[in-house]
């Protein structure tokens, strides 16, 4: 029936882990007039905190003592923007790691994009390849460790500094600018963390390489998404209260 509707239907398919959302999502995945995203939440947390991909949901949402982790205001805003861009087919605005995630190949709507990327220099570059640069600092799969190491703050700082029009692009110069940025923004780091800023710079440059190649192929799946009658996101890396916030921010879901 939705094929007759003028505006696309946006469906947020949510359940807790082992709740059957993957099976339900596969029904939409078989629909040629649908764009279905399989668990993009993992790409969100991986990009935000510098983690590897395919983390367990509890590692994203809970502390080690199994208490619920409350999303901070910046994280919540980033998550709202993330899902808004997915439902609006603005894939070029997503973190580059999103379009290099191993889960992407689970969605048949992404086949054209995946095939296009096979011919690019970064075909073997993914979230793991870039975040490997800092996994000894940020952890491979635990948000709690990344929080303690202030990884997100450093990731934001590196991006800000690298986006500046700097004549001297040597790493030593960039590290000095980073140190000044962190001090100016009252981000206190241990000496060991300051010595590891080179790792965050290598990570950022790896991701920028992904972004450049993503831009050459992402239009394929953006065009399909905009033409499809149904846009589906299947998620279990979330809590019910977070889902309520997303729906309020996007009432057409």
Q: If you had to describe this structure to a student in words, what would you say it looks like?
A:
With 253 residues, this protein is mainly α. It contains 13 helices and 3 strands, in the order βαβαααααααααααβα. The chain has a 3-stranded parallel sheet, covered by helices on one side.
User: Helix count?
Assistant: 13
- Distance N terminus to C terminus? 17 Å
Categorize the overall geometry. globular
Main sheet strand line-up: 1-3-2
* Strand-pairing-aware structural class: mainly alpha
Q: How many whole angstroms does the radius of gyration measure?
A: 19 Å
- Considering DSSP H and I runs of 4 or more, what fraction of the residues is helical? 40-55%
Into how many domains do the coordinates divide?
1
Average pLDDT number: 84
Strand content: 5-15%
Number of strands: 3
Given as residue ranges, the uncertain stretches (5+ residues, pLDDT < 50) are none
Helix/strand order: EHEHHHHHHHHHHHEH
Biggest sheet features: 3 strands, parallel
């Amino acid at each position: 029936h939705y094929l007759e509707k003028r505006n696309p239907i946006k469906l947020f398919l949510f359940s807790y882990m082992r709740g059957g959302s993957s099976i339900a999502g596969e029904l939409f995945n078989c629909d040629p007039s649908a764009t279905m995203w399989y668990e993009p939440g993992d790409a969100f947390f991986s990009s935000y905190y510098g983690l590897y991909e395919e983390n367990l949901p509890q590692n994203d949402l809970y502390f080690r003592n199994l208490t619920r982790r409350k999303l901070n205001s910046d994280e919540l805003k980033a998550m709202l923007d993330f899902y808004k861009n997915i439902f609006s087919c603005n894939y070029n605005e997503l973190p580059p790691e999103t379009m290099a995630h191993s889960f992407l190949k689970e969605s048949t709507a992404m086949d054209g994009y995946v095939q296009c990327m096979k011919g690019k220099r970064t075909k073997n570059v993914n979230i793991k390849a870039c975040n490997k640069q800092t996994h000894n600092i940020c952890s491979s799969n635990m948000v709690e460790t990344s929080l303690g190491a202030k990884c997100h703050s450093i990731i934001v700082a590196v991006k800000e500094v690298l986006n500046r029009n700097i004549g001297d692009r040597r790493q030593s110069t960039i590290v000095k600018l980073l140190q000044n940025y962190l001090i100016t923004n009252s981000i206190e780091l241990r000496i060991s963390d300051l010595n590891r800023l080179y790792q965050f710079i290598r990570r950022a440059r790896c991701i920028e390489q992904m972004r450049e190649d993503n831009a050459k192929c992402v239009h394929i799946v953006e065009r399909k998404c905009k033409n499809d009658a149904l846009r589906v996101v299947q998620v279990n890396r979330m809590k019910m209260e977070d889902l309520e916030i997303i729906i309020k921010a996007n009432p057409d879901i």
